[in-house]
Write a structure and sequence with these properties.
The complex is a heterodimer of chains A (569) and B (171).
Chain A (H helix, E strand, L loop, with lengths): L1 E3 H11 L4 E4 L6 H8 L5 E4 L3 H14 L4 E5 L3 H15 L4 E7 L15 H5 L5 E4 L6 H13 L5 E7 H5 L1 E3 L19 H13 L3 E5 L1 H5 L3 H11 L3 E3 L14 E4 L6 H9 L2 E5 L5 H4 L2 H5 L4 E6 L13 E4 L2 H13 L7 H15 L15 H11 L5 E4 L3 H9 L8 E2 L10 H11 L5 E6 L9 H7 L5 E6 L4 H10 L15 H7 L3 E5 L5 H10 L5 E6 L9 E2 L8 E2 L6
Chain B lengths: L1 H6 L1 E10 L4 H11 L6 E6 L5 E10 L1 H13 L3 E6 L5 E12 L3 H12 L3 E5 L3 E8 L1 H10 L5 E6 L3 E4 L8
Antiparallel strand pairs in B: 1-3, 1-4, 2-3, 5-7, 5-8, 5-9, 6-7
Classes of the chains: A alpha/beta (569), B alpha+beta (171).
Chain lengths: 569, 171
């Protein structure tokens, strides 16, 4: 059957079982939008800014096991998408972005709405393509989906010149992909896995450190059984929250710059560390030199060989899909009667519990002003710990990570690597579309939410009953916190005057909104909001402007060098 | 500085990459984005026109070079990567030198070209172009051996490298 390139694009997306396409039309993609109009399998979600289209597709992907898909036009459509693409790239999120390009003959002529999209996005995609022939559209889209979700996942961009979408050719969607240059390792090296198990069984002070790779690899169940069978303490990174149930006794909390005392101390003083789908980044281990100052054996399971021994020397590297490798570790453990030294493990747990008794996340709510931590804690209670939670970037993000206890993977959606303000609201749209009946909360700040506030309009159009939890402290809180601690209280440009009345603003977009000022009203407001199953409810919590995020490890310092509270200063 | 030089070894990395437009910028972009050195980079299609072969001369500590090869392997279009400097290999570079050749310098230049097994491939009343192939060190010593004042211009290709004997880089 001979059809146009535009129809091939849509038919290919149908073949990939794409149900939602997040996008924004423009000149270079008009043929594609015309084909979208003629069918109803792929539903298009019209955002208000291209960055939001990418974040929405990203939230959709993070909260499901599927690939997020977005469509933007050439020039500014593509450049607006770049922040979203880089966000997904830094967190290894599987996405396919289709961008229109000026007609082939106009490329390089400085045409209207022309940019070198492939060139601009090259450093922030897993791979990208410029399609030069209509016959290449279907095989390229097939490759894009395959690349996006296989190996270490990531965003893949397909740039299609307008004339190519108007040309015609025979359509047949390829069933398989063959790329001689690309074959990610799946199974781990058996000998290495045996060596790893041996180390784990000999450990006296073990620690399991699991990251976003466990969530992306859908290996949370396997990780949980392994950790429980071994009886070891387990910590998760910001990206790994939910990989191990947070309410479990063996969970010692998030680690890193704003990690729990017991997690950071355990990470530093363990003698055997099992790192799974995590990458020892600067926000996790602080100074690599300080981390290396304490001797320990490290086992590192990761699908990306370049993540291994990049910042920290590893003793037993295992390249492979974390699910496969954990499965094999479990099978090996089941086939042997050997178990870790229980006496040593008992002593180690005593130490961990002693650290835990420092109760590093305690805060004093009081009766006057709402503490931001209290809002997140109540949100967790009111939603029974079972909501999907997205966040923006800053203090509220850390409080969300610390006080919402995620027991399941793919419930926590945040921009960890790039740290993109403006991520939370559009990401929540993707999450809500993927899980129509489920509660979705977007924890945000008054700085972040204004970076994509226009999406309240998209939420109205598509009837997305997101609950926006605004922790409004009137400051760019994390910036203010650093200025207080490290820049002599000089609050340079971190105070925003002339904030809008957010409740009125949300109402203007057609939503339900409420400003909450008293601690006693927090719980009722949250309960009322989640009762309204069909409405977006925007809750503007006026929280303590002086509150800081603790514990804290200053950038570049060692993990054990923690500020636990304001009294430590 | 001394200790830095000690740990920063020179490496010759050879790779096969799909002969697609943009492939070169993926490689060069990787080096600039991650702050790796490139001393030279040569690229041309192989006998199989769908593949290009690149020789990259870089330097860094063992950790950095390990990261370089891992990151290169991670590029979707890269088919194979080897660090030639890990074992016996051959390096060659081509240089063209245009020199002033008048009076007694004409004879002297011809003798120098002969000694270094170079060839004079262009002659005018006042100049020669000398073609010289060899290791980087040989080309450097030729440039050092002739009168610097007589050099009009030089152009060098960068290193091409290949493993000795049974070591073959092929798909």
């Amino acid at each position: 059957m001979v059809i146009t390139g535009a129809e091939i694009v849509i038919r290919s997306l149908q073949e990939e079982k794409v149900d939602y396409l997040f996008g924004y039309p423009g000149g270079a993609v008009l043929y594609i939008y015309d084909e979208l109009f003629k069918q109803d399998k792929v539903r298009h979600v019209l955002v208000r800014h291209e960055q939001a289209a990418i974040h929405a597709a990203d939230g959709y992907a993070r909260s499901t096991e599927k690939v997020g898909v977005a469509l933007v036009t050439s020039g500014p459509g593509a450049t607006n998408a770049v922040t979203g693409i880089a966000t997904a790239y830094c967190d290894s999120i599987p996405m396919v972005i289709i961008s229109g390009q000026v007609p082939s003959s106009a490329i390089g002529q400085d045409a209207f709405q022309e940019v070198d999209t492939v060139g601009i996005t090259r450093p922030c995609v897993k791979h990208n393509f410029l399609v030069r022939d209509v016959r290449d559209i279907a095989p390229t889209i097939k490759k894009a989906f395959f690349l996006a979700k296989s190996g270490r996942p990531g965003p893949v961009l397909v740039d299609i010149p307008k004339d190519i979408t108007a040309q015609k050719c025979e359509f047949e969607y390829p069933q398989t992909v063959a790329m001689r240059s690309y074959s990610p390792v799946v199974k781990g090296h058996h000998g290495q896995i045996k060596k790893a198990l041996q180390l784990l069984l000999e450990a006296k002070r073990p620690m399991v450190y699991a990251g976003g790779g466990v969530v992306l690899g859908d290996a949370a169940d396997k990780l949980t059984s392994l950790v429980r069978k071994l009886g070891f303490p387990c910590t998760n990174t910001l990206m790994g929250l939910g990989a191990y149930p947070a309410t479990d006794r063996q969970f010692v909390g998030m680690l890193g710059m704003h990690g729990n005392y017991e997690a950071n101390m355990g990470m530093h003083y363990c003698d055997v560390l099992l790192a799974v789908g995590a990458r020892f980044d600067d926000r996790v281990i602080g100074s690599p030199a300080h981390f290396a100052s304490e001797p320990r054996k490290i086992i590192h399971i990761d699908i990306d060989p370049s993540s291994i021994s990049k910042r920290v020397k590893v003793d037993v590297p295992i390249v492979g899909d974390v699910g496969e490798v954990l499965g094999e570790l479990l099978a090996l453990l089941d086939s042997t009667s050997a178990r870790p030294d229980q006496e040593a493990l008992g002593d180690w747990w005593k130490q961990v519990e002693e650290w835990r008794r420092r109760d590093c996340l305690k805060f004093n709510q009081g009766t006057d002003v709402i503490k931001p931590q209290y809002v997140v804690q109540k949100l967790w209670e009111v939603t029974g710990g079972d909501a999907f939670v997205t966040s923006d970037v800053g203090q509220h993000q850390m409080w969300a990570a610390q006080y919402y206890k995620f027991d399941k993977p793919r419930r926590w959606v945040n921009s960890g690597g790039l740290g993109t303000m403006g991520f939370g609201l559009p990401a929540a749209m993707g999450v809500q579309l993927a899980h129509p009946g489920s509660p979705v909360a977007c924890i945000t700040g008054e700085g972040s939410v204004q970076m994509n506030i226009q999406e309240l309009s998209t939420c109205k159009q598509f009837r997305l009953p997101i609950k926006v939890i605004l922790l409004n402290n009137g400051y760019l809180g994390m910036v203010r916190q650093w200025q207080e601690l490290f820049h002599g209280n000089r609050y340079s440009e971190s105070y925003m005057d002339a904030l809008p009345d957010f409740a009125k603003l949300a109402e203007a977009y057609g939503h339900v909104a409420l400003r909450v000022q008293k601690p006693g009203d927090v719980e009722d407001a949250l309960r009322e909001a989640f009762k309204r199953k069909n409405d977006l409810v925007f809750l503007d919590f006026q929280v303590d402007p002086t509150e800081n995020v603790y514990p804290m490890v200053q950038g570049g310092k060692g993990l054990t060098d923690m500020i636990l509270s304001a009294e430590d200063l | 500085m001394v200790s830095k030089q000690k740990t920063h070894m020179r490496h010759v990395i050879s790779l096969l990459i799909e002969n697609e437009s943009g492939a070169l910028s993926r490689v060069s972009g990787l080096f600039s984005a991650r702050g790796y050195n490139i001393e030279s980079l040569t690229v041309a299609p192989t006998e199989d026109a769908s593949l290009s072969r690149m020789t990259i001369v870089t330097s860094g500590s063992d950790d950095i070079v390990e990261q370089i090869t891992k990151q290169l392997n991670k590029l979707v279009e890269v088919v194979k990567v080897v660090d030639l400097s890990e074992s016996a290999h051959i390096e060659r570079e081509l240089m063209l030198v245009k020199v002033r050749a008048t009076g007694k310098d004409r004879e002297e230049m011809r003798r120098m070209a002969d000694i270094f097994r170079g060839r004079i491939i262009d002659v005018t009343d006042t100049s020669y172009i000398i073609e010289l192939t060899g290791t980087q060190a040989k080309l450097d010593s030729f440039v050092g051996a002739i009168d610097a004042g007589l050099i009009l211009e030089t152009v060098r290709s960068g290193i091409c490298g290949v493993g000795r004997g049974d070591r073959v880089l092929k798909v």
